[in-house]
Amino acid sequence: MDISIRAHQAPASPIRRLIPFAEEAAKKGKKIYYLNIGQPDIPTPSVYFEYAEAYKPKVVAYTHSAGLLELREAFTRYYERFGVRVSSSEIIVTNGGSEAVLFAMAVVADPGDEILVLEPFYANYAGFAAQLGIKLVPVRTYPEDGYAVPEKRAFIEKIGPRTKAIIFSNPCNPTGAVYDEKQLETIADVALEKDLCIISDEVYREFTFDGYKALSMMTFDKVINRTIVVDSISKRYSACGARIGTFLTKNREFYQASLKFAQARLCPSMTSQYATIGLLGLDDNYTEQIKREYEQRRDAVYEELKKIDGAVFKKPHGAFYVSVKLPIDNAETFVKFMLSEFEVDGKTTMVAPLDGFYATPNAGLNEIRIAYVLDQDKLRDAVRILALGLKAYSEKR
Ligand SMILES: Cc1ncc(COP(=O)(O)O)c(C=O)c1O
Questions:
Q1: In this structure, how many other beta carbons lie within 10 angstroms of the beta carbon of residue 341?
Q2: Which atom of ligand 1 has the smallest separation from the CA of 101?
Q3: Which terminal Cβ of the chain has fewer Cβ within 10 Å, N or C?
Q4: Does this model's pTM top 0.90?
């Protein structure tokens, strides 16, 4: 008996695949700075727990497959703050942004179809595409120009008869790029000209620095009917384990199709949905404060990275990641070395190799992604250890 071709072909998460090496190192007593995964250390606001505790239904029941109406209404008020006007019947509450990505891809493309993706991209897009038998076709972005959206031409030359959509995250995981209006217009124009759908992943919406702003694709009227927005509370409220996201669309056909997928999985956690209503009541002061914290962390990482000879990177303007090209042969081997063979005072640093964030074969082999999800002192120490590890690794080769 064999497993399916799809199961064979599904990629392991580049963020999680080296965890066994970290577990082994931790077992030996090594302290590890985990900069490989976007799991913030910021406490989840207490209102989440207060709402969860206050919620005492007789039965923890299934909710509507689109999510609790009260929660969807709270989301509509939240989106209004960003100029996004959606009604509760244009929102499906999902099990994290992850499920919204899965639904969006499944709604717009069939097995064998293609979806263009700005590369490097959030690695799990490849996992979802593999589950659905969809081919991700990369449209490359480059560190030299801050991973900006390329010219229209770069998209057009990748479009074939089976291309159905364009997917990207803005602010971008893993590059930290924030696309400006002109760049988003390019995507909108390509979608219009080539009759494509747009899947805009906006889970890092609030995390923008240096005056940059992440515009929602839902504010571009000309593509409003061909757009699906993916969203999540995971990062915004440091509530990754709450597993609450949203699928937004004004397109009724997309919505109804996605609702069928939602019905098949019944509903997201009732308690978590209720507690999220509390989170959505937090005002801009909360997000401003978190944003400042990430900006300071970004600056700390940036300053320490600048001290590394041969490291190529640009200051990221959003999300909480930075992609860095290192003077090494292979980032995965380097990460394994950091975990298995290197330590400074019993400590080491774990980052994610960037190759899994590319669909282009052999791309990103000497690049890493750093998630700046720890406090500034820890981050500085972690990057210093990374720099020392880099030296030791290079001397060994
Ligand atoms: C760009 C992007 N989209 C979606 C997700 C999925 O997040 P979740 O399923 O926790 O909402 C992540 C998580 O890291 C992400 O970085």
A1: 13
A2: 4
A3: N
A4: yes
